[in-house]
Design goal:
This protein is mostly helical. The protein has one domain: Up-down Bundle (Four Helix Bundle (Hemerythrin (Met), subunit A)). 65% of the residues lie in helices and 5% in strands. The chain has a two-stranded antiparallel sheet. Strand 1 and strand 2 form a beta hairpin. Helix 2 runs antiparallel to helix 5. The longest helix is centred in the N-terminal third of the chain and has 25 residues. The mean pLDDT is 95.
């Protein structure tokens, strides 16, 4: 399980970097739909990092960030996730965390499930963003997990 979860975290970083590359090449840097979805995707990654670190996590209204800020925040999140992934062992994965934005009843899940949620949530919204790029006439990229494996698990190129 640890190896697969580390692979998913590594794939997620690569796929997010590829998405930001495709978005940058699209000429649609000011597209509000892309900004909104990318902001949500990154905010959830950041919120889970707070959960993993035992810090308070919350979502707040804020001005919609631009492309460069979103990309920088995403890259920073992945650096922290990568460091977190290096320290994973069975005991760490089994530890429970509370997801505060699901308060009633409390959402208490193992770290392993929380990390899987981070990967799956990002995958969902990244797919929406790639579809939006296609709708705008841009060239989305195929970031399927098997593509990452086939390419020998490349590191993200931010």
């Amino acid at each position: 399980m640890i190896g697969q979860l580390k692979n998913l975290l590594s794939h997620q970083a690569w796929a997010d970097a590829v998405f930001f590359y495709a978005w940058n090449a699209s000429g649609a840097l000011e597209d509000e739909d892309l900004q909104t979805r990318a902001d949500h995707m990154v905010a959830v990654q950041e919120a889970f990092l707070h959960v993993f670190q035992g810090d308070p996590a919350s979502f707040s209204d804020h001005p919609l960030p631009g492309f460069q800020e979103l990309k920088a925040r995403c890259e920073a999140s992945h650096h922290v996730l990568k460091a977190l992934g290096r320290g994973l062992d069975d005991e760490a994965l089994a530890k429970s965390v509370r997801v505060p934005w699901f308060p009633d009843p409390p959402c208490v899940i193992p770290v392993a499930d929380a990390l899987l949620q981070v990967c799956l949530h990002s995958q969902h919204h990244r797919g929406q963003c790639m579809a939006r790029l296609r709708a705008l006439g841009a060239a989305p990229k195929n970031v399927d997990y098997i593509i990452w494996l086939w390419k020998q698990k490349p590191e993200p190129r931010w």
